[in-house]
Design a protein that fits this description.
The protein has a single domain, classed as Spore Coat Polysaccharide Biosynthesis Protein SpsA, Chain A (Alpha-Beta Complex). It is of the alpha/beta class. Strands 1, 2, 3, 4, 6, 7, 8, 9, 10, 11 and 12 form an eleven-stranded mixed beta sheet that branches. The chain contains seven helices and 13 strands. Helix 1 crosses helix 4.
Length: about 300
């Protein structure tokens, strides 16, 4: 059975200032997601699941349903605060969903095979998808998950600081923890982390999470239990969020292991509006090198 790709596209990015998930970056109007789907298909994924808000449904179907028809099966799944909340009544002023782990949980009814999770607005590169498929087909079990780890130097923005999940590894390349580090930037030959934590500088080859995870379907059972515990403990808070690293941390402590799989791919994304021209230029360079056709779906 081929693995499934789950794309997290329910969030609206306030720093970017628009619905970047369906913005065009390729020469034929391709979104970043188009390139992820293209890479997923040629790597061996067999289905794509979009996690979206109900309000985005028409926009997403307009962009993706027709172009992917007869190419790969797709599903649209909604992430809304009430889904899997079992009637929980949170802060009445809250309108945003519960975070990335809740987003993945919303796909429970349509994913029955090993699967990968990515962000909608990140360009991950072909090698990353190829490595993910290899793991999902061979190494993924209820006790063994994985994360694609990127070199920190390959994930920075020239237009401002970034926040990154820094991976701590043991001597067997297994994940110990993911620590959110804030305000990271390159200053000369040094990568500085200006968030009051130690260390203040990070090596350029530090492995970081760009939210590219590989899970067994057992993930849903663990996550649903944890989500109900999260709601009881933090559900009344206006801005509390239930993130994938929260689930991963408990999984490591109580159940199994998470491999950190390296990649030669360079990540790029649109953290800031000013990043958009760089993303377009980077895609064009890859096209010029023959890594992608000028029109993905033509």
């Amino acid at each position: 059975m081929k693995p499934t790709l789950v794309i997290l596209a329910a969030g609206m990015a306030s720093r970017y200032g628009s619905m970047k998930q369906v913005e065009s970056f390729g020469p034929a109007g391709e979104t970043i997601m188009d390139y992820s789907i293209f890479d997923a298909m040629r790597s061996g994924f067999g289905k794509v699941v979009f996690i979206i808000r109900r309000a985005f449904e028409d926009d997403f179907k307009k962009v993706f349903a027709e172009k992917l028809k007869n190419r790969i099966p797709i599903e649209f799944v909604f992430q809304e605060p009430e889904i899997f909340a079992n009637g929980f009544e949170g802060n009445p002023e809250r309108t945003k969903p519960w975070g990335t782990a809740h987003a993945v949980l919303c796909a429970k009814e349509v994913v029955n095979e090993p699967f990968a999770v990515i962000n909608a607005d990140d360009f991950y590169g072909y090698q990353s998808f190829k490595n993910a498929v290899t793991f999902l087909k061979v190494g993924c079990t209820p006790e063994n998950y994985a994360i694609i780890g990127y070199d920190l130097i390959k994930t920075l923005s020239a237009h401002g600081t970034v926040n990154r999940g820094v991976c701590a590894l043991n001597n067997r390349r297994k994940l110990i923890s993911v620590t959110e580090r804030l305000n990271i930037s390159q200053q000369g030959d040094t990568i500085v982390c200006d968030d009051g934590q130690e260390p203040k500088t990070l090596p350029e080859h530090t492995k970081v999470s760009m939210n590219f995870w590989c899970f067994h379907p057992s993930f849903f059972e663990h996550t649903e239990k944890m989500f109900h515990q999260f709601l009881k403990a933090e559900g009344k808070a206006l801005k509390s969020e239930f993130f994938i690293p929260i689930v991963a941390d408990q999984f490591i402590r109580e159940i199994g292991k998470i491999e950190v799989i390296g990649t030669s791919s360079k990540w790029f994304g649109v953290t800031y509006k000013e990043d958009a021209p760089f993303v377009q230029e980077s895609i064009q360079v890859l096209i010029n090198h023959g890594e992608y056709p000028a029109g993905l779906w033509q």
